[in-house]
Design a protein that fits this description.
The complex is a heterodimer.
Chain A: E1 15-17, E2 20-24, E3 35-40, E4 46-51, E5 81-83, E6 88-92, E7 114-118, E8 125-130, E9 146-152, E10 155-163, E11 168-173, E12 179-184, E13 192-195, E14 201-203, E15 212-214, E16 228-230, E17 235-249, E18 263-280, E19 286-292, E20 301-302, E21 307-311, E22 316-321, E23 327-332, E24 342-346, E25 349-357, H1 361-364, E26 382-388
Antiparallel strand pairs in A: 1-2, 2-3, 3-4, 5-6, 6-7, 7-8, 9-10, 10-11, 11-12, 13-14, 15-17, 16-17, 17-18, 18-19, 20-21, 21-22, 22-23, 24-25, 25-26
Chain B: H1 2-17, H2 21-24, H3 43-52, H4 68-81
Helix pairs in contact in B: 1-4, 3-4
The chains are: A mainly beta, B mainly alpha.
Chain lengths: ~400, ~90
């Protein structure tokens, strides 16, 4: 799919639509140009490619100064979502490069930090929504895209919801891309003073060469672990973190296969905490919040029985009441949670499987001296726990 | 002295252009990667680490991207930081 010598890699599985496997690449802050490919599932033949950063003479290329588009990144490193009725494939794209320095790439930098609706048959762009134009915080817009039907102004609307790293919960009309609302689901957001009627942010505190404290940090207010949606309540359940960072920018030039970050950042311990937030998909309002000492980096499972399952970094597997966030059950596994719970039935008995273990950013970045130094010595297991519901 | 200053200036440029700052910080005081100002490694040990990397970590081998002279310049730059680092130990 990609060339690792150009800094391209695959971070997630493809979205299969009819006879096509559609997959985006990760650029991981290497100076390359993001794209989404469609391959014939039975032959592997490349059928179309959509560049997430437009080239010369393509709409959107004017949002990149000079030839900065060549190293623009815009990775689509999380799987997409398909609506068979509208025949649209949705993907979120990540940050532009350099990650923290925008000096080389003046402009909005389309289609980075965007939600894209593609025609899966042709790869043609049907609409886009850019949540963070000219991102210099590494916010991405790659979080999972969940398709829900909500009432907007009394009318049923086919919507798409996303909780982004930038700390806002967005709802769009998934047919047209029209912005419905965007509201913060984390308590501290300093990068913006709010969104205008089209969803474009009014800028607040941004990183500088001298350094500035920006909230959320580059971890985002939510990591890649997915939220859950329950049609019983109409709520989305977001595993999150409220962590700020001190960020300094530095102008650098792109160099092949060399990290193109353009600054440095350190998370700040003051006020840092994790949470599980319930957001009403009809309004974007936070209905309840369960807070934790450390970020919640595990995915969330919502069940038809009105329960939520997830796990915290202190080792607790958790079950909560989906309606009000009360903790109904916990089990200490001995290691923090980073994975995704599932549930299944076998011979009439219902099971919940929750992996316990660390990985990714949890052990690489969190134990820094200013934030959670004690996590450097945390137990890092790697165990799958399967819990069975009591027999009736 | 002039040549040493040239090496330090060049070393700083190479430190930035080769992305060393991305893990070790803009002033090499450590981020994801270790603090290179207060390192106890000798020049030869640093040369080996920059050239060959550290398998199993994000520290890549740079011998195909940088000349021996370039690596020596980066080391000269790192040594120059020790003179002004607040954590300097006599």
């Amino acid at each position: 799919v990609g060339d690792y010598q150009e800094g391209q890699s695959i971070a997630s599985p493809p979205l299969v639509v009819k006879d096509k496997a559609i997959i985006g690449i990760s650029t991981a802050e290497f100076p390359t140009r993001g794209f989404i490919d469609a391959y014939q599932v039975d032959t592997g033949k490349l059928l179309w490619r959509f560049y997430t950063v437009p080239g010369p003479n393509e709409p959107g290329n004017e949002t990149w100064s000079g030839d900065s588009w060549k190293a623009g990144c815009g990775p689509a490193w999380v799987p997409g979502t398909f609506d068979p009725e509208l025949n649209l494939a949705y993907f979120g794209t990540g940050n532009p490069c350099a990650m923290w320095s925008g000096q080389n790439r003046e402009g909005d930098n389309l289609y980075t930090n965007s939600i894209l609706a593609l025609d899966p048959d042709t790869g043609r762009l049907k609409w886009h929504f850019q949540s963070v134009p000219h991102d210099v915080m590494d916010y991405d817009a790659t979080s999972e895209l969940i398709l829900v039907d909500v009432n907007v102004d009394g009318r049923p609307t086919k919507a798409l919801i996303q909780a982004e790293k930038d700390g806002y919960f967005y709802a769009l009309d998934r047919k047209s891309g029209r912005f419905i609302y965007g509201k913060p689901f984390v308590e501290r957001t300093t990068w913006t003073k709010g969104l205008d009627s089209e969803g474009r942010p009014v800028l607040g505190v941004l990183p500088t060469e001298a350094g500035a404290m920006v909230c959320p940090s580059a971890f985002g207010a939510k990591s890649w672990n997915h939220m859950a949606y329950s049609p019983l309540t109409g709520y989305a359940y977001i595993p999150g973190l409220d962590v700020c960072a001190q960020i300094k920018t530095a102008k650098v030039e792109p160099k092949k296969a060399t990290l193109y970050i353009g600054g440095e950042g350190s998370t700040v311990g003051e006020g840092a905490q994790g949470f599980l937030a319930a957001v009403d998909s009809r309004t974007g309002d936070v209905k309840w919040r369960y807070t934790t000492k450390y970020p919640i980096f595990a995915s969330v499972l919502a069940t038809a029985g009105g329960l939520l399952f997830t796990g915290d970094l202190e080792g607790n597997a958790l079950a909560l009441d989906a309606s009000d966030g009360r903790v109904l059950w916990r089990f200490q596994t001995g290691s923090g949670h980073r994975g995704s719970p599932i549930t299944y039935a076998l011979n009439g008995k219902q099971y919940v499987a929750i992996p316990s273990g660390w990985g990714g950013v949890t052990h690489t970045f969190l134990p820094n001296p200013g934030t959670y130094p004690e996590l450097a010595n945390a137990t890092k297991g790697s165990t799958l726990f399967v819990y069975g519901l009591a027999e009736q | 002295v002039g040549q040493e200053i040239d090496a330090v200036v060049k070393g700083r440029q190479l430190y930035m252009s080769n992305g060393c700052y991305a893990c070790h910080g803009l002033e090499a005081s450590g981020r994801v990667g270790p603090n290179l100002v207060l390192t106890t490694k000798t020049d030869d040990e640093l040369f080996d680490r920059i050239s060959n990397g550290k398998p199993g970590t994000a520290m890549a081998a740079n011998r195909t991207k940088m000349t021996e002279q370039d690596i020596r310049a980066v080391i000269a730059y790192l040594r120059s930081l020790r003179q002004t680092h607040p954590g300097r130990q006599e």
